[in-house]
Amino acid sequence: MASDKKIAQKPVRPKARLPRGFRDRFGPEIAAERRLIEIIRGVYESYGFEPLQTPTFEYTDALGKFLPDVDRPNEGVFSLKDDDEQWMSLRYDLTAPLARYVAENFQNLPKPFRRYQTGLVYRNEKPGPGRFREFTQFDADTVGSNSPAADAELLMMVCDALEALGLKRGEYIVKINSRGILDGVLDAVGLPVEERERRGIVMRAIDKLDRLGVSGVRALLGEGRKDESGDYTKGANLSEDAAAKILRFLEIGAVGDDFQTVLRDIVGDNAKAAAAVDQLASIVTLCRENGYSAEQIAPDTSIIRGLDYYTGPVFEAQLTFPVTNEQGETVVFGSVAGGGRYDDLVARFTGQQVPATGISIGVSRLLAALTARGLTADVAPLVIVLGMGDTVSSFRIAKELRAAGVRAEAYVGTKKIPDQLKYADKRGAALVVMEGDDERAAGNVTIKDLKLGAELAKQVESRAEYLGARNAQVTIARADLVSEVKKILEQN
């Protein structure tokens, strides 16, 4: 006989996990990033740039990633359809949304239009060590000026920002090249501008020179390359001779302030490339005359940038000091910012060419470099006021400390004092403040120096020695709380 009782079903619980290429961040890292952004913001605003914020989602065609002949676009972007059956994508940079904004508001904007923007961007690309699908960029752009002065200003401004963050001359360099010069080289090897797709493959291959080396780039200029995981990237199918000429151009690398002579010899009688050399010279001259030396800003033929929309000068800020990577190897950190001129991007919307130039700082990557260099300031020390039976009093103490500029938290968890002290340890608190009934009646409070207590516990060998050392716990008059807390924090 079948039972009428229903069998209890186990609840279906989702597994707590992150999508590949994404990560959680917490506490000190976020605080350090916020300070970094504020320093850069201060420099950019001092130059007269103003903030702009655009949505995280844009229509896919506005981003320049057109739908392929499949059910959803998958060309480096994350996409979905809205309720009007239109494709939308998460922005993959902050430049394409800027072009849409300028096209939409062109008549009302000052020309040139100067803005900065910081925010998360998304790349639907294969994640790897240090390569995430979500990361923060900080951009500055000038739209509406074709003057080399607009490019030069960005280079000088990013130098000022890097130095404001604590980097010294010689620890960074901003390298500059021009797509116009490379166009002349590609024309010379038989790859005309009409072959847009193959040119794009060449640009992206060259942009990976520092990561893949000459052999990896040579493979991508030829038939293609299979990486360590077995994934295959289609190449540009250039002849060996054409690939060799491009690589020779890249391997020239850094050129001195006589670069006009060197580069004019390379481009020969190609008028467009010669004009690009002269434009580059104007930018470098303006930087030099404003006190920015070759140690800070220098021409380099290996700088190309991988995005297809660049049309003229391109630049890249690189850090030159060695750091230790996750494998314990000593490496040079490399690129932390890049950009260039993109005079055709707004014309996609309006049909009217609007000159533009911009630079983008990879905030997460720069933060990692500054952390490795010891240039990120510690978060202000935390004082925790324990809950000793009078919540009103503990909140009042915390408020008083905050009013005096001390980072303070009133504990709101369990009433057990050992648990409260464990919590303070896990939070990395510098001090705890305790006001029990007896102390309150006597008009006192007790301050426990957790940092000193931990140090003493490591250093002394006996309890007598511990008690004879600088006291890690003091009871003082309640009226002296703020001054005593500040004095102890200064000693630490």
Automatic annotation (TrEMBL):
The protein's location, in the record's own words, is: Cytoplasm
One GO molecular-function annotation for this sequence? ligase activity
Keywords from UniProt, A to Z, are: Aminoacyl-tRNA synthetase, ATP-binding, Cytoplasm, Ligase, Nucleotide-binding, Protein biosynthesis
Its top-level enzyme class, in one word, is ligase
Source species, domain of life: Bacteria
- Predominant subcellular localization, coarse grouping: cytoplasm
What Enzyme Commission number does this protein have?
6.1.1.21
**Catalytic activity annotated for this protein?**
tRNA(His) + L-histidine + ATP = L-histidyl-tRNA(His) + AMP + diphosphate + H(+)
Q: Which residues form the Aminoacyl-transfer RNA synthetases class-II family profile domain?
A: 34-381
| Self-association and partners | Homodimer.
- Give the family from UniProt: Belongs to the class-II aminoacyl-tRNA synthetase family.
**NCBIfam families the UniProt entry points to:** hisS
Annotated protein name in UniProt: Histidine--tRNA ligase
What organism, scientifically named, is this protein from?
Rhizomicrobium electricum
